[in-house]
Amino acid sequence: MSVILCALGLSLLLHGFSCSVGQTSRGCMLWRSHGEDVCCDACHPGNRLVRECGPRPTELCTPCESNTYAVHSKQRRCLRCTQCVGAQVQVRGCTTTSDTQCGCKDGLTCGNDVCSFCVKKCGPGEEPTEERSCRPCPNGTFNDQNHQKCKPWSTKCLKPGESIVAEGDAFNDIKCGNVAPSSVRDPDRPDDSEETWPLVLSVVTSVALLTCGVIVVLIVIIKISRKKEETKTTIAKTPIIRTPTDDPRTLIAIECSFHEPEPEQGHSLESVSRPLSENWVNGRQIG
After folding, report:
1. Nearest Cα to Cα of residue 27 among 41, 15, 14, 13
2. Which of 52, 79, 106 is the last residue in one of the domains?
3. Sign of the torsion formed by the C-alpha atoms of 45, 46, 49 and 53
4. How many CB atoms lie within 10 A of CB 219?
5. How confident is the model at residue 47 (pLDDT cuts 50, 70, 90)?
6. Predicted confidence (pLDDT) at residue 63 exceeds the cutoff of 80
7. 128-180 residue pLDDT tens
8. CATH number of the domain that 152 lies in?
9. What pTM value is reported for the model?
10. Which of 91, 230, 255, 283 could join 101 in a cystine, given CB atoms 3.0 to 4.6 angstroms apart?
11. pLDDT tens, 201-211?
């Protein structure tokens, strides 16, 4: 009797598998015998589990409604399809077996694996932050890809015989190459030309300033000397003006100093040599 029951159960199981192959869109895809009923182990893709056991496998699962989907074989409830909004753009539509796939507009990128939000797209030389913005790579790190975390510079060259010929920057790692020992310069020791150039520049600047100062002083001295000479010349050319007096002889002397009248014809020397006392009385001219 037990052998018969085992054979019957095996036949039902095989029948379930054969039915599951033909059933591609509705009901239970894989079931097992459970007394007079069958129990569903997996629904068809896009179907949700209504009840686990029953008399017919097609009644155990039902397809998801419009704008809903199911991803698990024994999912009790279909999920609502995601709507791409804001900065998101739809890349692939929703089906009964998969959710909507969203992307982001130009200049933005997905903030997580399912692209539930968009963030600013960081370029080489910078990295994204927790605040959904970008920041430059810190000193000693670099990023040569889009929207990736900055990585530390390498500390040594990978290939044997190569040495570091240039430090890295925010965009690139260190540069390595085969360099002759004589041409390798200690990075901690500055170049001699770099030390000499500021000293030469300082000396040239000091000499230029000193020369300009000497020229300015000479110009000032020359101007002061010229002003003194002009002042002396002006004083020498100024006429001496004496204070007027009532003395007839003094007045005649002053008048003669400015104008000496020529003797008129018809006058004798006698009028010229006439005593002053006869021509002047009390400061007044007579005749």
Report:
1. 41
2. 79
3. negative
4. 10
5. very high
6. yes
7. 988 888 999 999 999 999 889 999 999 999 888 889 999 999 999 999 998 66
8. 2.10.50.10
9. 0.43
10. 91
11. 888 888 888 89
Neighbours of 69 (CB within 10 A): 22
Q: Is residue 232 part of a domain?
A: no
Note whether 137 and 180 are same-domain residues: yes
Instruction: State phi, psi for 54 to the nearest 5 degrees.
Output: -175, 175
Domain that includes residue 143, residue range: 122-185
The SS3 call for residue 91 is: strand
Token digits for 129? Answer: 């932050």
Other C-beta atoms within 10 Å of 81: how many?
17
Q: Are residues 19 and 57 in the same domain?
A: yes
Pairing of strands 175-177, 163-166: antiparallel
**Residue owning tokens 């002061």:** 224
What per-residue confidence (pLDDT) applies to 170?
93
Q: Is residue 280 part of a domain?
A: no
Give Cα 145 to chain centroid, integer Å.
20
Domain membership flag for residue 107: yes
3-state SS class at 255? helix
Pick the last residue of a domain from 89, 120, 151: 120
* CA neighbor of 151 nearest in space, from 121, 129, 123, 173: 173
Residue of 58, 69, 75 whose CA lies nearest to 93: 69
As a three-state string, the secondary structure of 134-188 is EEECCCCEECCCCCCCCEECCCCCCCCCCEEEECCCCCCCCEEECCCHHHCCCCC
Q: Is the pLDDT of residue 2 over 60?
A: no
Best CA proximity match to 87, nearest among 111, 71, 63? 111
